[in-house]
Write a structure and sequence with these properties.
The complex is a heterodimer. Chain A is mostly beta strands. Chain A has two helices and eleven strands. In chain B, strands 7-2-8-1-14-13-15 form a seven-stranded antiparallel beta sheet, with helices on one face. The longest helix of chain B has 14 residues. Classes of the chains: A mainly beta, B alpha+beta.
């Protein structure tokens, strides 16, 4: 199990080595120490490796992730797991703005809070935030599911397309074209699976409310001009 | 871009380390703002004395200047030279005479006034600027610093942060204000003067004008949310206070950390990694449109 100490080893080397992993390697479990808030740690991975980062990370950690399972034992800066394609990214602390931005797939789990614009323009990623999310979360979200165990800030789901939002706590306000929708059995089954995948115990899908698109802004309509 | 670093000490045993810690924070933020840097340090203050930070061209003879100012004041003046800046300490009741003498000198600028605050700023890489001024050796209760990537006005010493527009008051800013010309005109009509075309100086001036009218720092920061339009993270220093404010959209990054010995602000977490006890600090992102304020009583 290789350990890379970023206090003594350049970040470029770490990313380069991780990018060169091949299916025949036995080195599938990596530990990264002393991240000290550096940006772009473990970006662009395309291999089912397990990466554990021991400390707080800066911007864009695990961006563009495919297949890999990345754990950040600390807080993450802006854009953690942005544009993720598959795999899993787990932040044990808080995440800054734009967590999971424009992600196409995979699962992002944040044990703490995520700040503004969590899941902005998400395109298929699933995001589970055990704390609360900030304003304009799921802005222009197109596909995927955002699950928030705590509260959501203002303008949740502004200009949302087909993503599904599940919030257990209070929602400060809903954005344009975002409405509350019925939580049907099919949604509860999906939600239960996500909660299980995120390691959430003792919380029932019944405790959540579901939000999504009213689909009134899909096509230009003169009566909606003030909302575009 | 631009980077902000701020440190407010709760434990005065750390006072001798204030400058060294801030210096490390600024250096970590170099790639956010490599064109200029500056900082304000709140050090000791003597009752009945006022500190003026002066700035002049390189190799200026501050000793001769202070000797001549001593004659104006009627007593020798204590001073310390830091590269292109000097901090002079004069009896408050002689300030008017000294200030009047300084006004007549074209080659010296008075850049800051405070009972405890001194302000240093120059064009150059943050690490170089900190070294030139001897930041490592500076002590005090709190300090704010800035690394600049110029967007709203020229790369000049005057355009560097912090901006000070009142006694012991300074402000550093990451972002850009969209209504600064309008606010500047209003403040000028109220009698305020500005040194630069910089938007951040207007924010500093707005806070100072509110406080001059009797507002607390908390109230001045709250009212700036309505008065100032644009993107901003401000860190504000006063003689006893340390404030943080982000605009309602919170476009600009910010991280705070707190232990029982200090409170720190950094534009990025990287700026905080060498603070003593950071591993056990509470680290969080300040919320938009919320005033954070620490005061020493």
């Amino acid at each position: 199990m290789p350990t890379v100490d970023l206090a003594s080893s350049p970040l470029r080397e770490l990313n380069s080595v991780l990018h060169q992993l091949t299916p025949s390697t036995n080195e599938t479990h990596w530990t990264v120490t002393n991240p000290r808030g550096q940006h772009n740690i473990a970006v662009g991975l395309d291999f089912p490796a397990e990466i554990e980062i021991d400390g707080h990370v800066g911007y864009y950690c695990a961006g563009m992730n495919k297949q890999a399972r990345v754990t950040v034992r600390g807080n993450a800066g802006q854009g953690v797991a942005e544009n993720m394609m598959s795999g899993c990214v787990h932040v044990t602390g808080d995440a800054s703005q734009a967590a999971g931005a424009s992600g196409n797939g995979g699962l992002l789990v944040i044990d703490g809070n995520a700040s503004a614009r969590c899941g902005i323009s998400m395109k298929g990623i699933d995001i589970v935030v055990k704390g609360s999310v900030g304003h304009l979360s799921a802005f222009m979200a197109q596909a995927g599911k955002l699950v928030v165990l705590g509260d959501a800030g203002e303008a949740l789901g502004d200009s949302i397309y087909e993503a599904q939002l599940f919030v257990r706590g209070a929602v400060a306000s809903l954005g344009a074209d975002c409405i509350e929708k019925p939580l049907k059995d099919e949604h509860k089954i999906e939600l239960k699976k996500l909660l299980d995948d995120a390691g959430v115990d003792g919380i029932s899908p019944d405790e959540f409310k579901r939000y999504g698109s009213a689909r009134k802004l899909y096509h230009f309509h003169i009566d909606n001009v003030g909302s575009y | 871009m631009c980077g902000i670093a701020g440190l407010f000490l709760k434990d005065q045993k750390l006072a001798p380390e204030l400058g060294g810690l801030l210096s490390g924070m600024l250096e970590a933020l170099s790639d956010r703002g490599p064109d200029s840097a500056g900082f304000a340090v709140y050090g000791d203050g003597d009752a009945g004395q006022i500190k003026l930070t002066l700035r002049a061209a390189p190799s200026f003879d501050f000793a001769a200047l202070v000797a001549s100012l001593g004659k104006v004041a009627g007593a020798p003046i204590a001073y310390q030279v830091h590269d292109t800046h000097a901090v002079i300490s004069i009896p408050t009741d002689r300030e008017a005479a000294v200030a009047s003498a300084l006004l007549g000198m074209k080659d010296v600028d008075v850049v800051a006034r405070g009972r405890r605050m001194a302000v240093f700023k120059e064009v150059g890489l943050p690490a170089d600027v900190a070294k030139r001024f001897g930041l490592n050796a500076m002590t005090g209760t709190h300090a704010v610093g800035h690394t600049r990537m110029a967007t709203e006005s020229a790369v000049t010493t005057n355009g560097a942060h912090p901006f000070t527009t009142g006694t012991d008051q300074c402000l550093v800013h990451n972002g850009s204000l969209s209504n600064h010309n309008d606010v500047r005109r209003k403040l000028i009509r109220q009698g305020m003067t500005f040194r630069t075309e910089n938007d951040s100086e207007v924010a500093a001036g707005y806070i100072s004008s509110q406080m001059a009218a009797g507002a607390s720092l908390q109230d001045a920061m709250t009212s700036s949310l309505a008065a100032l339009d644009g993107f901003y993270t401000f860190v504000i220093g006063t003689e006893t206070g340390f404030g943080v404010l982000r605009d309602p959209i919170a476009c600009k990054p910010a991280v705070m950390a707190e232990t029982d010995r200090w409170v720190a602000f950094g534009t990025e977490y990287r700026a905080l990694v060498d603070l003593p006890g950071i591993d056990v600090a509470r680290v969080w992102e300040p919320e938009p449109a919320k005033v954070y304020l620490w005061e020493r009583h």
